[in-house]
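Subgroup meeting minutes
Present: P.N., E.W., G.H.
Scribe: E.W.

1. P.N. recapped why we're keeping a running log of single-chain structure predictions: easier to compare across weeks, and new members can see raw inputs and outputs side by side.
2. G.H. added today's entry (345 aa).
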Amino acid sequence: MNMKDLAKLLGVSRQTVSAVLNNKDWVSQETRERVLKAIREYNYAPNQHAVSLTGKGTKLLGVVLRDISNPFYTQIAMGIESVARASGYSILYHNTFENHDYEVDAIRSLVSFRVSGIIISPIQLGVDLSHLQHVSSLGIPIVSIDKLPDIQCHSISFADRDAAFKATCYLADRGHNKIAFIKGPESAASAKERLLGFTDCVEKRSLNLKDEWLVDPGTTEKGRHDAIFKLLKDASSRPTAVFCFNDLLAVSVYKAAHELGIRIPQDLSVVGFDDIEIASLLGPPLTTVRTDSYKVGEEAARLIMTDLKGSDEESKDIRHTPELIERNSVADASLGAGSKKKLTA
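Output recorded in log:
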């Protein structure tokens, strides 16, 4: 029997069991006696390392992000820090570079550093979550920025499929029948959801779709450039609009279009996702889907703080609905070549 099993048996949280083991004073006497009685009856032997983690360990949070070079994750980190530091916690960061093995190593490292809790943007390729299940069994609270299957923890996610559907249909409503999609990494649940949203609109509106308009940009800057350049170089076969998994890919579309002498939005309309700071600074400013990642970081940190205070509340699955931000990167194809609908930034 582990701590999770004991907590479930008693109808309390893992944090409550851990607090009893560490003689925390916020646990009621009645609950304390119930937990201690069950420990004796079931011969429960707590993992002593786990007990030390939630006992007199440092006020340290672990944060594991997929790609800290992406401003989306940078904003998440800033949001986490704004709450964590105000609560007296320091942060230990790990960047996984979209690599599952790096994520496993990061979790092991954070456990060894006796972190009080972990906030993670997880890689789910292959859905091997044993490293996170181990953390959960130790009683260390987890907040996932994406929903984790079979892990009892708070999660924050986005209505990616619905948002991608609306963004694609936004292009279709402006007369675009030839729309390409630049995909995200296969390991990201959000990439799958956004692709589904794109294809939902393509099917519902009976849009043209060629295989080469579903672009896998790879994981390197050169790979992104080459894949997008190939998509756009032939004027006779290129799409009239491109919807990108995120704004960084939209920036790559802008670069390739500039090299090829393609005007945005007169010759090519572009929509991104995330609304990172550079989106509004591009020329023309990018129409995109806003996710407000700073707010997500704040929310994740508050959830961790609630758990660390010993809350017995059920795990929350918070789902945000992203907002389409209209700027000037989309032309109205129904008005003819070279025209664009007037939009405000």
